[in-house]
Write a structure and sequence with these properties.
CATH architecture: 3-Layer(aba) Sandwich
CATH class: Alpha Beta
Largest sheet: 5 strands, mixed, barrel
Bound molecules: hypoxanthine
Helix content: 25-40%
Radius of gyration: 18 Å
Distance between the termini: 36 Å
CATH topology: Rossmann fold
Number of domains: 1
Number of strands: 9
Length: 275
Amino acid sequence: MDERVQRIDEAAAYIRRRIGDKIPEIGIVLGSGLGKLGEQIDAIEVIPYVEIPYFAQSTAIGHKGNFIFGNLSGKFVCAMQGRFHYYEGYPMETVTLPIRVMSSLGVKTLFVSNAAGGLTTAFRIGDLMIIKDHINLLPNPLIGKNMAEFGERFTDMTVAYDLGLIALADSLADELGIDVRKGVYLANSGPSYETPAEVRFYVTIGADAVGMSTVPEVIVARHCGMRVFGMSVITNISNTTNTIENLNDGDDVVRVADAAASRMSTLFAKMIEKL
Ligand code: HPA
């Protein structure tokens, strides 16, 4: 058997022993400073990543490192409070392992979130952006022998972000009085922030926001056949000129994310109620 699949099976089996026969059909990935939604879950189990076989430690700031299982908006869900990034030095297999484990546990719909830099001049700090598409400048996590147990060799990405979920988010945001934008998320490796020349390049190729995560998880989720909904919290505006004001700072990112996290949590919770 494929050793990668064995590792996924072992991690999933460990979690199943902890949660019993409950099946989470909805998975949530909470990004930098966005762990708040995790507190709204009526948890039956909070499993630190260190306890799960083959899971890495989350070392990024603002990332807690727990897999939470419990009830949210009347549904049994699992939520990752913190994720693994490629820039932490983990291979893509490790970065995306939790998504494959979620799939093995029965997750069919994935909500992903992140903190991102705003590229579009119309964006403001604290804006919420529904991800309508992405540009991947990270290595593709599906490189290597195809894991046929999960999906096909060539994964279609024409509609990576589920149109029904985007429409649901739009209408509920309207009802709740929450302003949302829509845009294209570009993933680069980090951990250095973008140079102004890179920012201008990313704008030119059609990106609205830039970050260092999410896309590997989305690609693997699509490989597994999950429906995906993604949201970025704009925590800073990317600099297009080489001026020394507004230098990027990881602590700023976490502080702003915290304030916008409650609006995002409200929207996610309402969407999950309607699924
Ligand atoms: N660039 C990359 N990643 C980020 C940013 C940014 O400006 N803000 C938050 N995550």
